[in-house]
Structures are given as C-alpha cells and as structure tokens.
Design goal:
CATH architecture: Ribbon
Number of helices: 1
Helix content: under 10%
Number of strands: 11
CATH class: Mainly Beta
Strand order of the largest sheet: 1-2-11-3-4-9-10
Largest sheet: 7 strands, antiparallel
Distance between the termini: 33 Å
CATH topology: Umud Fragment, subunit A
Order of helices and strands: HEEEEEEEEEEE
Number of domains: 1
Radius of gyration: 17 Å
Amino acid sequence: MLVALVAVVAIWVAAQLFVGQVFTVRAVSMEPTLAAGDRVLVMRPLLDRDLAHGDVVVVDVRGTFVPGTAATGPLAGTVLAPTSAQAYLVKRVVGMPGDRVTCCASDGRLVVNGQPLDEPYLAPGVQASQDSFDVVVPSGRLWLMGDNRAVSEDSRAHLGSPGGGTVAVRAVVGRVVAAT
C-alpha cells in the first residue's frame, strides 16, 4: 500500500514537472476567452518551448508586476516551489523579443512591427487599448495583455515597473492548451 502511494505521488510530481499543470483563472481579465473560475491546463515549457504571438500563457509576475522574485526553471509553479496564487497571471502574448508594439493604428488596432493586429478573441466593440504606448520588447522578454482590455492589469499598467511592463520569457510557467 505504501509503495503504491509513493508511486502515485511520484507520478503526480513528475507530471507537474515535465508535462502540465492545472491552474484556476482568478479574474475577468481574459474574458471573453476565459472567465473567472475557469480551469486551464498549462503545458510545461520543458515540452513546449516555442511561444508565439497570440498564445495564452500562465506567467509568474513577481519582480515585474508584483514584488518578489519569479520562480523559474522546471520547478516554477509546482508543488515543489509553492507560492501565492497572486504571483500567477493568465495573459496573451502580444509582443515577442525584438517586437515593436504600439497603440494604436488609425482604426484603433494594436500595431506589431508596423502591421495592424487582428484580434478576433476580443469581444465585439472592445478597444485594443485606451492607453497609448510605443514599446520595443527587450531580448528575453514578452509584452502581455489580457483580452478584457478595459479591466486587465497587464504590460500597459506596468510601463514604469522593472522591465518596462515586459515579463521575462523564463517566467512563463507554460502555455494554456485547454480550458474548462
């Protein structure tokens, strides 16, 4: 019996470390894509290295959006590196390292590297941003935004924070691959 229990715990820890993990969405900042209370399955970066524009990610924002130091590496976000749930946010990748992200084009859309961004995940009539900005995303960092732009505290709200509103790629816990 003890051996079986140890085996189950070992499999659970290994799954968190190397495969994926489930997080609960705490806020409305990703509506209409995700609602508060939704559960998301996150694919760990060890198996899923390639982030892309438009990906929805869970990220540890300590040291960028909130005080503290982000947990990085394979233990980030697992039971072996516990932390407050407030350290984790679910956001969409809008800018990758080297991208220039500006708000907004004459039609109200975000502009990434000179190209207006199509954002079909925004609710009809939602503005891309009420705040004007023009940033170049530094190497090794991401520009993140919520889909519910009127209430999302994202990269725009942290332009004066360390990283200028950007979050380190290594602080990404994983990419959202499923939601319920």
